[in-house]
Write a structure and sequence with these properties.
The structure holds two protein chains of two kinds.
Chain A: E1 2-11, E2 14-24, E3 29-33, H1 40-47, E4 59-62, E5 65-66, H2 71-76, E6 78-81, H3 93-103, H4 110-120, H5 136-148, E7 154-158, H6 166-178, E8 184-188, H7 192-198, E9 201-206, E10 209-215, H8 216-225, E11 227-234, H9 240-245, E12 250-256, E13 259-264, H10 269-278, E14 282-288, H11 293-301
Parallel strand pairs in A: 3-8, 3-9, 6-7, 7-8
Antiparallel strand pairs in A: 1-2, 1-4, 4-5, 9-10, 11-13, 11-14, 12-13
Helix pairs in contact in A: 3-4, 4-5
Chain B: H1 2-16, H2 19-42, H3 50-54, H4 58-72, H5 74-82, H6 84-89, H7 95-115, H8 118-127, H9 132-159, H10 163-179, H11 192-199, H12 202-208, H13 217-241
Helix pairs in contact in B: 1-7, 2-4, 4-7, 4-9, 4-10, 5-9, 7-9, 7-13, 9-10, 9-13
Classes of the chains: A alpha/beta, B mainly alpha.
Amino acid sequence: MIEVVHLSKSYGRHRALDSVSFLIDKGTIAGFLGPNGAGKTTTMRILTAFTRPDPQTGSVTVAGIDVLKSPQVACSRIGYLPEGVPLPGELRVIEYLRHRADLKRVGKRKAREVSRVVAECDLEQVSSRLVGTLSKGFRQRVGLADALLGDPEVLILDEPTSGLDPRQATEVRSLISSLAGRRTVLLSSHIIGEVEQVCDRVVILAGGKVRLDESRRGWQRRLQDSGSLTIEVADPPADIKKQLRSLPDILSVSGGSGVFQLRCRGDQREGILRAATEAHWRVLELRSDLVSLESVFLESTGEPIEGKDHDG
Amino acid sequence: MVRLVSLYRRELLGLFVSPVAWIILFIFLLTNGATFTFYLFALDGDTSALLASQYGSISFWFLMVLIPPLLTMRSFAEERRSGTFEMLVTTGIGDGTLVVAKFLSAWSFFIFLWATLLPLWILVARFGTLDTGILLTIHLGLLLVGALFCAAGILASSISSSALIAAGVGMVLDLGFFFVNYLRGLFPAGSLEIRYLEYVSPLYHFSSDFQLGIFDVRYLVLYLTVASMLLFLAVKVLERRRWW
């Protein structure tokens, strides 16, 4: 549904995208992660035919349409929400959506389509208000309603919850989740928790290159494969670290004074507990440390996400 | 066509709700009102020469050069600055439709401005002497020169991301057309160069033809052709910017 093959884009000497390739299947909600300047917005702008890639490099196909050869046809299949949701403040919400429906050639379905997106984005109460007087949350909803006009097969959302308070962000997220299955969604975000919560697939971009392109199952397996445990033992024997290291699938043991951190392959809690019982250790606590998508991100990019917000 | 009409209406509405447009209207009415009153007294009530004086004055050309760039400066520059340009282009609308819609809305507002003076001329016709033929040719000339200057402003706005720079470039282009007339003084009377300069000088067209009630169809071709060429260049500039 979205296929990007060997896409490159340079601004003067700066190479914003370097042979970027990824494939997002129909009905998938994909998260687009990466630090600032990774090339996320550039990729999205190329997908929506706003920016052209370097000549003679790669191909971009959206909903079966070659974006570079038929940009206007491709645009009609895409609903796009740019970063910051730039909207004209002088129009009323309903007037703005009608105007956008005209630009998107919705045709005779205009009235029905506008009513549908107003209902879908819960905009009934503000439909007659000027866009310029709306809160950021409602502006974001208007932008989403605009993207949904014409019932496009593909939605491209550039940081849709940026700047929203937690309640507004949760509402927008649940709205995006409700689109799952019906449309293909590419969602760029700085919020790792959001991507973990909403997306079926993650594409991590850094330095203009794809560092990771994996399904939810794939990244969860990766997390399981690189488990992390903490064990607290009262009056531990002197050679406890040696004993722990000798257990199967334990990669490393660190710490001391009764609290030890273990890196292991998969979830090894059962094996450790059995060994502890056999050796008569007084185990006070054994916990699996939370290893999240952030670990995968850090591993892929070697840097933390700017403005990351785990609570969303 | 639906896209063009919708965008034209939205642009025109945008002009009417912008404070810049109302400031322009204020300056326009003040300048024209003052000029009208001045010539009414200067001509000692001889209203037959009022039309030619009003539309041949320096204040008339000041407004002609000043207003179109101020109306068009935000067309693309402001859209790009605020980010709404991205929203527009990603609907799949063609660059040509965008340029034409923005040109038509600026030109319509320009026509609206000059139309606000019509009650003055109705009063002059009612209480004095007015040659309606001259009134007609002057307004036809106004429409054509306005189209040319608005097209130049649209081109300037497509080049720059700053509305102020766009207005400056637009004024320089308009002044270029204005000063063509004064280049005639550099050549001997009756020379071929002078004839060529007269072909492309709006100032000359007003003083030699429009103000005398003469309308030459060649002017229609000239102004519409050059305006179309400038709009075509604006489309090419927008296309080019996609590669930046």
